[in-house]
Design a protein that fits this description.
heterodimer; A: alpha/beta; 6-stranded mixed beta sheet; 4-stranded antiparallel beta sheet; 10 helices; globular; B: 315 residues
């Protein structure tokens, strides 16, 4: 189980997360939902341990072990990964090289081809293409999803996986999310769109760095719809809402 | 060392750069192999005229492509030096006649050199409507004591195309001074791309210059240098817009890794015709943090991720 225990995080200017506690169980699908600026991506960065995202208070726990001070690589080796909202681009690196991490992952070509087909990319066309600016945002995201399929992480944080892509690709994202859960992994979707959250089991509703509600996804979506989508004071929760 | 052994040593080293050695034996492919101050292999094909003469410490080669000829296979040019010490002077006079089309695959291999200077001058003329591509890759010894001085002066006449790539990414550099000077006439296109990896106490000086002297001439000068350890890198890329509707872009990307690296880049843009358009982009710094973290989130270490990113940049 992956846990975030009483995590707070602040920058010089702002308190981003306020005493957050979350639990992610193996094999279940999670959504972290909230409006823009609620602090959702920061949760993902803290789980992955990105540079500059060490909690100012609290811990990240994996299977009972404190991983708060582990590096990104160490966390990845324990089975955690992150897909950025806007994945990085790499000049001169082919899709094949990217997916195999320069040959470090012992993958068969057939596995690469299957993963690309899974995300709707024709392997014969995309294998030799570069993971650079010549790819559209949607293509780049599909490649990232293929990478996740190949890495088979225990916990995959997908930050706004649907941003900048077409409607058809939503099915592909859902297929990948279901695939991760089927092998016992835990997809954690960070999103501000309820359509993305439908295909999960549990949710955390975030507002201004606090958890407003957590539980079954239907309840969380209902609350998001009634409170956040019509909110006249986004990311400034009232004391009642925080209760 | 006899000629056969010299040939084998040079060709084997060229193979390390990915060249197919059988190309040097293929009679359909024009080629020239220079070792020290001698030509030890030469093959001409129809439409290609390679001839040479010995000069003090080196060789002068004249290469001419007949008007209108499209050379079907790249011409292989291999320049080697297999002694440990010495000086080599190479002069290439290249003329691509009107409407001709040709590619060159060039390798400079100095696998054992310790105290050695390679001094090369290329004088290139691409005539009207001709197309020339010259891909040059270097393989130096690991002593870091080679001194490389190359000057390329290319004139590209009306609607001609000239593309030059220079790669020194697989071995130590030593001391390197390269100057590439392009004179682009009406409608001509010129592209200069240099990729270099400097390590330890290597010293790199690159100067790419584009003169847009003809209407609608277009030029690109792109440099990618990775500076590691305590290497020193200095890039000066210049573009001069002297004709209407001419355009050029200069780009310099320098990636650093090492506390004692000294890297500088200077773009110079100058217009003497107000209808010309020049742009530049330059960056110096460590590998992008987001790129690093992306690969680390898949399990690579900082070092492994850096190496993979750099490998791509220098491709």
């Amino acid at each position: 189980m992956l846990e975030i225990n009483n995590v707070s995080y602040k920058t010089q200017e702002k308190q981003i997360l306020k005493d957050i506690t979350m639990k992610f169980l193996p094999g279940s699908r999670y959504a972290v939902i909230g409006t823009n600026g609620a602090g959702k991506s920061t949760i993902g960065y803290i789980i992955m341990g990105l540079d500059g995202y060490k909690p100012t208070f609290g811990k990240v726990i994996l299977d009972g072990k404190d991983i708060t001070n582990l590096t990104i690589t160490e966390r990845a080796k324990l089975g955690i990964t992150l897909m950025w909202q806007e994945p990085a681009r790499f000049d001169g690196m082919t899709v094949e090289n990217y997916l195999t991490l320069g040959g470090k992952l012992p993958l068969q070509k057939s596995e690469l081809m299957e993963a690309l087909e899974f995300v709707g990319l024709e392997p014969n066309i995309y294998m030799k293409r570069f993971v650079d600016k010549t790819l559209s945002g949607g293509e780049r995201k599909r490649i990232e999803l293929a990478s996740i399929i190949l890495i088979k992480p225990k916990y995959a944080v997908l930050d706004e996986p649907d941003s900048g892509i077409d409607l058809m690709s939503l099915d592909i994202i859902n297929d990948v999310v279901n695939y991760i859960a089927r092998y016992g992994g835990t997809p954690i979707i960070i999103t501000h769109r309820e359509e993305m959250a439908y295909n999960t089991d549990y949710g955390y509703l975030i507002c201004s760095g606090s958890i407003l509600l957590h539980g079954k996804i239907d309840d969380v979506i209902k609350a998001f719809r009634s409170s956040c989508e019509v909110c006249t004071h986004p990311n400034i929760p009232t004391p009642e809402e925080l209760k | 060392m006899d000629v056969r052994k010299e040939f084998e040593t040079i060709v084997k080293t060229a193979e390390k750069l990915g060249t197919d050695a059988s190309k040097f034996m293929d009679k359909r492919i024009a080629s020239i192999i220079i070792s020290g101050d001698r030509v030890i292999g030469l093959n001409n094909v129809p439409g290609v005229n390679l001839n040479h003469k010995q000069i003090e410490h080196g060789v002068e080669v004249n290469m001419e492509i007949t008007e209108g000829v499209e050379v079907p296979f790249p011409i292989h040019v291999c320049t080697g030096y297999i002694e440990k010490k010495g000086y080599q002077r190479i002069i290439f006079n290249i003329r691509i006649k009107k409407g001709a089309k040709v590619k060159f695959t060039a390798h400079c291999v100095f696998p054992q050199a310790e105290e050695f200077t390679h001094d090369a001058t290329s004088n290139v003329v691409v005539e009207e409507g001709a197309i020339m591509e010259y891909n040059d890759e270097h393989y130096h010894s690991e002593f870091g004591t080679i001194s490389l001085k190359t000057i390329t002066n290319a004139v590209v006449e009306k609607n001609g195309v000239y593309k030059n790539t220079f790669h020194l990414t697989k071995t130590r550099v030593g001391k390197m001074n390269i100057v590439m000077n392009l004179d682009l006439r009406e409608g001509a296109v010129g592209e200069l791309v240099s990729k270099v990896k400097a390590s330890k106490d290597d010293s790199v000086n690159i100067n790419e210059i584009i003169h847009l002297n003809g209407e609608r001439a277009r030029g690109l000068a792109k440099t990618v240098v990775v500076g590691l350890d305590e290497s020193k890198v200095n890039v000066l890329n210049e573009a001069y817009g002297n004709a209407p509707y001419s355009r050029a872009h200069i780009s310099c990307e320098e990636i650093t890794k090492g506390e004692n690296v000294i890297v500088s880049t200077t773009p110079v843009l100058k217009i003497s015709n107000d209808l010309a358009e020049l742009t530049h982009e330059a960056s110096i710094g460590r590998v992008s943090q987001k790129q690093l973290e992306t690969l680390m989130a898949k399990g690579l270490t900082d070092e492994e991720a850096t190496e993979l990113i750099i490998k791509g940049l220098l491709l």
